[in-house]
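Per reviewer request, we include the raw input and output of the structure prediction for the construct analysed in the revised manuscript.
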Amino acid sequence: MKLVSYAGQQLATTDDVADALVTLAAAIASEGESQALQIPVLVDGREDCADLIVGVGNDILVGPQASADVDPDFSEDAERLRAHPLFPQPAEDDSDAHGGSAAAPHDVDLSGIDLDHGL
């Protein structure tokens, strides 16, 4: 389980949903956009949903949460986030001869970023 800190609240969700959320939120922000997303959460051990605005100007923090309970199956929700049109997808030609993923060099534009102080 992981905690998603958003707008002064902490929301508990599964690792796969939290990881997909962070990746998608970063991708949306990199496009200069903001969008509403819904994620599954646990509230007092009960499954529920939370609506978040992610992207430019909306910060989220994801961290671990210890839990003795069995994690719920939110895998379909994580896949829904990964199916979002802005979620980064691996290129079809990024596999090596053994069927694994080959690391492709990235050309990252760092103009406008002060590496000592962020954006």
